[in-house]
Design goal:
Blueprint: H1 2-6, H2 18-50, H3 63-72, H4 78-102
Helix pairs in contact: 2-4
């Protein structure tokens, strides 16, 4: 190793600033939460389609509509009913996480651009600079 370093054969390594690493970490976590919530919603719809239950696609993920729907569908087995309730509770957990993070104190302005809106990380939709997070 020392010989490689002395003759300058070790490649240079870049390590992002701590603020950028923190922002990337937060965005990776947000991406995970959004992906999991989407999977839960898709599981919801899939379970209802499997048992041929009629439902309003636009209202399905609303809390009130879901419980009204659970009261009206009778031909669903208890196992499917329990899975739907579990999926609903998981969705509420993800929604609460999003609400908690949205109301959280904002970070200071982005160090590279000076733009305070750039650190509105929970509502960030990828319109700004590329952080290399989750891109394929």
């Amino acid at each position: 190793m020392c010989d490689l370093l002395r003759v300058d054969l070790l490649p240079e390594c870049y390590m992002a600033p701590s603020e950028l690493r923190e922002l990337r970490r937060i965005l990776r976590y947000r991406n995970h939460i959004v992906r999991t919530a989407t999977q839960t919603k898709n599981k919801f719809s899939g379970l209802l389609m499997e048992v041929c239950a009629e439902y309003n696609k636009k209202k399905l993920h609303g809390k009130r509509y879901f419980w009204e729907l659970m009261d009206t569908i009778e031909h669903v087995s208890s196992s499917v009913s329990e899975m739907l309730k579990l999926s609903r509770s998981n969705l509420e957990i993800f929604t609460n996480i999003q609400k908690a993070r949205t109301g959280a104190k904002r970070k200071p302005a982005d160090p590279r651009t000076g733009n305070p809106a750039a650190n509105n990380w929970w509502g960030w939709r990828g319109d700004g600079f590329n952080l290399g997070v989750g891109s394929r």
